[in-house]
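Hello Y.,

Per our agreement to keep a running log of every chain we model this quarter, I'm adding this entry. I've kept the format consistent with earlier entries: sequence first, then predicted structure.
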Amino acid sequence: MKIGFIGIGNMGGALAKAVAQVPATELLLSNHNPAKAQVLAQELGASLASNEDIATQADVIFLGVKPYLMADLISQLAVLAKPETIWISMAAGITLTSLSQYLPTEYLVRIMPNTPVAIGEGMTTYSVVNSDLAPVVETLLASSGQLMQVSENLMDAATALAGCGPAFVYQMIEALTDAGIEQGIQASDAKRLVAQTLLGAAQMVLGSEKHPAQLRQEVTSPGGSTIAGVVSLEKSGFRSALMQAVSAAAQRTQELGK
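Predicted structure for the entry above:
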């Protein structure tokens, strides 16, 4: 199976590395930065190709270009591709309906990975009209981390939550690390303490049937240190700030697709 990648920025490049681990696949790479494409091609044993060559040869094409470039690109390439070519778009906000103006709906996939796919710990959401395409997506991206199929009307929300979410978490890690430094802990130690704490807490959530609120309560002793911090967060609007951030990101995602 020939797999083409048009656009191999941070996200496209990370997904290409995941797909390269799938047996019996041949990768074709195209990017506006030839030098970057050459480095990745050598690393993965892939071939460099033009957009037009990918369109005519590939069985599956990952589209990793900016949303505002998508319409012009696919309108040019659609006429070159085989009828059964599978097109996988990772452009924020671009709906399957919009893509179907140029490409066959039954061969369209919309995905939104997040940056941890680079280390095989990503969370990728995807939407399809043709359910037969789901196994293809799951197989190609199996080594990138977790995948979740969602309905098309939830993709913008999923993008805001999982796609943008790492940035919000990094901000929290940065803030907690600075808080540790303020308390006299060395920066490297503070970062490790914070990162491992978040990692462990996330694993507790994933491995438990308990609601996150219940897990929080189990850490929060009456009159103790934790409840003092929790009350401070509530007074500062911590939860509200996170919810507003997701709402703002979802709204912006919708705007990018127009």
